[in-house]
Amino acid sequence: MTQVNVLEAKNQLSRLIHMLEAGEEDQIIISRNGDPVAQLTLLQKPHKKPIFGVAKGEFTYPDDIHYLDDEIADLFYGDL
Length: 80
Description:
- The protein is an alpha+beta fold.
- 30% of the residues lie in helices and 19% in strands.
- It has a domain of 39 residues: YefM-like fold.
- A 3-stranded mixed β-sheet has the order 1-2-3.
- A hairpin with a 2-residue loop joins strand 2 and strand 3.
- The relative contact order is 0.13.
- The model has no long low-confidence stretch (mean pLDDT 90).
């Protein structure tokens, strides 16, 4: 944990953020007149949304998978 004053935090913000990103520090305390007033930490990265088609080619299915399609359609729609 590093503690810096407000002026140093203002002048060295990029360096402080780099220290967090590099894992050199897990939090940085910003103080005014020696009293802690703020804490600088990394945010958790948001989860990425799933990408459609990412598993293309990973799964196989039998050639006759559609053999019941007409029978199932009749169950839902009847004779149209």
